[in-house]
Specification:
The chain is mostly helical and 431 residues long. It has helices spanning 21-38, 40-45, 47-74, 80-111, 128-136, 138-141, 143-150, 155-161, 164-179, 186-207, 210-232, 234-258, 263-269, 271-280, 287-296, 301-314, 317-333, 340-356, 364-375, 390-415, 421-429. The chain is globular and about 70 Å long.
């Protein structure tokens, strides 16, 4: 007798390709490129639409992080598991981001995109943007300030400022306090769960506007900086995108393979989120959807609630690739001597500053300025060289960040035996 278990899960009806949100986002981006190129002034007028969408998502991201962490910790009967999950996640983040920094340094030294530009650093004029970056960079270099800033001055202030680290800190303490109340806390936990559902409903409505946001963001970028700016620094753009691809192939793919899942299928499953962050250059724009999808593919809610917010603060794989590549590129472009010991010193500084910027919104340029200031070798004013293409570069590193966070969540869930592998296989096969 055949005892094979049949999959009775109903098949999802296949929709026309133009109804797929990822197709709509791609179409919006392509139209945005054309609009920004053909009508630059019109492209500049589109920025408010992209900003409005990102703010709409940011509006609910803090509460969703809070609800996810509280539900996650309260849903764990063994409180030691909370510390174990966070410890495993942080170790994973540290190892993988360190590998990213090394790959970034190796790639920029081999490809040498800045060699031959011969830019005189003394001729670079200071601007309000550069001065602002320099003035804010001390927040990243001070380790003491970093730890103090993790603690919000008020619980409401953490949400008002949109600081993921501060929300994370407050949510963990609140969750343990709620857990200590035992059964008395059950009604409040139910309310938090229902509130979370309401916020996800808002996200679902907002996502219908994502193709417009992607169109507006790309149109603004092309309209402001023009195709010529992108072409003039095309070597750096190409080399950095290639570096990100190398990271996917030689780091994320083996991690996924040895942990029992297919990276390509996972990327297809979250393709809408990847296209959206590529278009908007904002990782926060997909946090709620990413949490939901990680639960849909079989990761236990309690683990997702702990790992994903922590990953958003500490697992910046793509950003680390950017820091290493951009710093050495600027040294090459300005003919600044940077020996092997100097690059090892740069790596050590990046290990600190890349974590120090976790609580700073839009911190990539601030952290880069802090790193250059700390090296006291590469002129900070040289950041002006890449200001025009920073958004193009950030599109690549936020995609890498999001993919790395998704992989990390599945991996840690597997380590904790909190991963339904049958569900994972079934969902990824449908992608």
């Amino acid at each position: 007798m055949n005892t094979a278990i049949l999959d009775t899960t109903p098949l999802r009806p296949k929709r026309p390709f133009y109804m797929d949100l990822s197709f709509q986002v791609i179409a919006g981006m392509m139209i945005g490129v054309a609009a920004g190129y053909l009508a630059p002034k019109f492209g500049l007028m589109m920025q408010p639409f992209a900003t409005a969408f990102i703010r709409l998502i940011q509006m609910v991201t803090g509460p969703i992080i809070f609800c996810a962490i509280v539900s996650g910790i309260a849903g764990v009967t063994n409180k030691k598991q909370v510390g174990r999950v966070l410890f495993k996640a942080l170790i994973y983040f540290e190892v993988v981001t360190s590998i990213a920094l090394v790959i970034g340094l190796m790639a920029v030294n081999i490809l040498k995109p800045g060699v031959g530009m011969n830019i005189n650093a003394a001729s670079l004029k200071s601007s309000a943007t550069i001065d602002s970056l320099i003035s804010h960079s001390h927040h990243v270099t001070s380790l003491a300030d970093y730890f103090v800033n993790v603690i919000p001055s008020s619980s409401v202030g953490a949400f008002a400022n949109g600081s993921i680290l501060q929300i994370l800190f407050f949510a963990v303490l609140f969750a343990f306090g709620l857990s200590s109340a035992g059964e008395k806390a059950a009604p409040l936990l139910n309310i938090i769960h229902n509130i979370s559902s309401a916020f996800f409903w808002i996200v679902g409505i907002a996502m219908k506007l994502s193709p417009i946001a992607a169109f507006a963001a790309i149109a603004y970028t092309v309209g402001k900086f023009g195709i010529t700016t992108l072409l003039s620094l095309g070597a750096l753009i190409f080399d950095f995108y290639l570096t990100c691809a190398i990271f996917f192939i030689f780091v994320l793919f083996p991690i996924a393979y040895f942990n029992g899942f297919n990276l390509w299928k996972l990327l297809k499953y979250i393709r809408t989120e990847l296209f959206l962050v590529f278009g908007t250059s904002s990782s926060e724009s997909v946090f709620p959807q990413l949490v939901k999808k990680m639960e849909e593919i079989g990761c236990e809610e309690s683990v997702v609630g702990l790992v994903m917010p922590t990953a958003y603060s500490f697992n910046h794989d793509g950003t680390c690739l950017y820091f290493a590549a951009a710093a050495v590129f600027l040294a090459q472009a300005t003919n600044t001597p940077l020996s092997l010991p100097g690059q090892i010193g740069l790596l050590a500084i990046l290990l600190l500053t890349s974590k120090g910027g976790a609580g700073v919104a839009g911190s990539a340029l601030v952290v880069l300025a802090a790193t250059l200031a700390a090296t006291n070798t590469i002129p900070v004013a040289s950041i002006a060289i890449i200001l025009g293409i920073h958004r193009v570069l950030s599109s690549a590193f936020v995609v890498t960040n999001i993919a790395g966070n998704a992989v990390a969540t599945v991996v840690v869930s597997g380590w904790e035996k909190s991963l339904n592998r049958e569900k994972l296989s079934a969902e990824l096969s449908r992608a």
